[in-house]
Amino acid sequence: MPFVSNTVFPSPSPSQSPSSLLHLAYEVANCAYNGFRGDFSGAAACLRDSGLHHLLSNAWQGATRRYQAQALDVPSVPRMMGAADVVFACALSVLTIGAVRRYMLPELRALENVFSADERARRQWRLETQAQLRRRTPEDLTSMRQCLAAFDATQAVIKPPSSSTDSSRPLRPSHRELSEQRIAEALILHIADTPQTCMAQSDRVAALCQLLAHGLGFKLPRAMREALRVDDARPSLVRYDGAFTLLRERLEPDWRNDTADSPTFTVHPIDVQLFDPAETTDDLSKETRVARRMLTHPEALRHVRSRVVALIAASVREDCGSAADWRDLGELALSAAAQRGLSCDRVLGAMGLAVRSGVSARFAWRWTDEPVVPPGQVMTSTIPAEVAQWLARVMLIAGKLEKRTPCPPRLEALARGDTPPSLVIGSTDWLDLVEGIRALGRKHWGATYAQVREAGKRAGKEGLTR
User: Fold this and answer.
1) Where residue 461 falls among pLDDT bands split at 50, 70, 90?
2) DSSP letter, residue 433
3) How confident is the model at residue 276 (pLDDT cuts 50, 70, 90)?
4) Are the C-beta atoms of residues 358 and 241 closer than 8 Å to each other?
5) DSSP letter string over 280-304?
6) Is residue 183 over pLDDT 60?
7) What mean pLDDT value characterizes the chain?
8) Which of 431, 425, 423, 466 is nearest to 452 (CA)?
9) Under a CB-based contact definition with an 8 Å cutoff, are residues 300 and 183 in contact?
């Protein structure tokens, strides 16, 4: 079945000549689609059977028939059409000869040299050829189709309702809004570019990227919305437990290998900054520098990050069967830890257990290739322990959807990535960390543990001198 409908570009019969370049685009699109679907042998057969061979033959046959008709003075044949056919056939022949000379002749020369070489050279050529053929693995194909799904999902942006009285003049998006759009596109593609082991798992990742695109303000096609069962009133993102693992792998910052005080350093559970602002140097082109500035816009980055956090929290409530107030659970856990002198890792471990016992996409969504739970057994979560603790940190920051209140500093101290696991709740270092977060505000996400604690000490001394 062709990727492009035949009703759009009808295929000419052997007795007809190609009228324009549209048929060439139609053939190339179908051949490329066949290549993406399989191991590219279908694309080669397509180009051989219905591609350049037939196009060249039909082009020259059509030009010959038109000039024969002109020679016989047939009034129904315009003279300009014959000239156009000749130009089209000549251009197509030049392109074919150039492509053969550019791509085929080097390969033929290399093959000729191999046949004339010794056995050792032929063996080396076979090894190199096998290595090239093995580069396109099933993992590469899954990553490619996921990226294509991400591109399809980010083609259109939902326009906000116009507040002006003149509806005939469309509002131009601001620089921050354009930056948010570019950041969201790069983030979705970053998540999509994750090779999978099978097509079923690839379908899950593609659906995750499409749902993330919908949540970040992109307008999905109607067929895609119906296939994903998108409901604007109920935000949905995570529909299988493995999505939490994927999101953590792609979104958690690698602050351990980053440089302190750099623009990319952050200890927030989620990081959407994919490029370093310091790389926008003069050795890059103007277009590249402008694109990098849009992808590193500070306000746009914070807004996209808050939307991703809100999407994950909403999906935990809507798709994973959890109606708990994770901030209240965090407050209770910190109070109990302060009374008993427990460390941060004990608190996060307990919250991770709460996540694994009460959060699972299997409560609402079931995939056909997943094993069915036998009668009498309880459906359990498949979220790993480390991922559950990361998700608990995200839920502490998110809070409740109906309560847009800032996260308390003590909970942000627990959610920070570089908070020492052995730090005892209620100790002097813990109090300095909390006071430093209160003094720095949201800037503490870009500071190290030592810097925040020093800021807390200075704030404490200033409070005593007043």
Assistant:
1) confident
2) H
3) confident
4) no
5) --TTS-HHHHHHHHHHT-HHHHHHH
6) yes
7) 78
8) 431
9) yes
Task: State how far the Cα of 383 lies from the Cα of 250, in Å rounded to an integer.
Answer: 16
Contact by Cβ (8 Å): 212, 311: yes
409, 443 contact by CB (below 8 A):
no
Task: Name the amino acid, one letter, at 211.
Answer: L
Whole-number pLDDT of residue 113: 72
The string of DSSP codes covering 95-122 is: HHHHHIIIIIHHHHHHHHHHHHS-HHHH
Angle at 14 between CA 103 and CA 83, to 5 degrees: 75
> Quick one: pLDDT band at residue 419, thresholds 50, 70, 90?
very high
Type of residue at 360: S
Q: Residues 69, 77: contact at Cβ < 8 Å? A: yes
- Residue 5 is predicted with a pLDDT of 35
Buried b (16+ CB within 10 A) or exposed e, 308-341: bbbbbbbbbbbbbbbeeebbebbeebbeebbeee
Reduce the DSSP state of residue 166 to 3 states and report it. Answer: coil
DSSP-assigned beta bridge partners for residue 424 = 343
Q: C-alpha angle 201/204/207, rounded to 5°?
A: 150
Neighbours of 460 (CB within 10 A): 15
- Residue 368 burial (10 A CB sphere; 0-12, 13-18, 19+): exposed
> DSSP per residue over 168-225, as a string?
TSPPPPPHHHHHHHHHHHHHHHHHH----SSHHHHHHHHHHHHHHHHHTTB---HHHH
Q: What is the pLDDT of residues 185-216, one digit of tens each?
A: 999 999 999 999 888 999 999 999 999 999 99
> Tens digit of pLDDT for each residue in 313-330?
999 988 888 888 899 999
Residue 266 confidence class, pLDDT cut points 50, 70, 90: very high
Which residues are paired to 343 by β-bridges?
Answer: 424
Domain ranges of the chain: 22-134
Averaged pLDDT for residues 421-435: 95
Contact 278, 262 (CB under 8 A): yes
Q: 218 - beta bridge partners?
A: 157
Average pLDDT over residues 377-403: 87
Residue 406: both structure tokens together: 């800032």
